[in-house]
Amino acid sequence: MREGLAVALAHQGGPVVVDVVVDPYALSLPSHLPFHAVTGFTLSLAKQVLSGKMDSVIKTIERNTGLV
User: Fold this and answer.
1) What's the pLDDT at 23?
2) Residue 12 lies in a domain
């Protein structure tokens, strides 16, 4: 896997498509979060809980905090 990514990043002849499998619950967050992003994320989690998607919220928390 690392070799394929290294080859793709070293390619100089134009665009490259890299097909990878990722964790659907992984969060993509910058190192510093502005306040509006934190409040939006919190609101999103609250809406998921209130709409009965607690399992999804738990999986997101578990996979991103290393609790499991």
Assistant:
1) 84
2) no
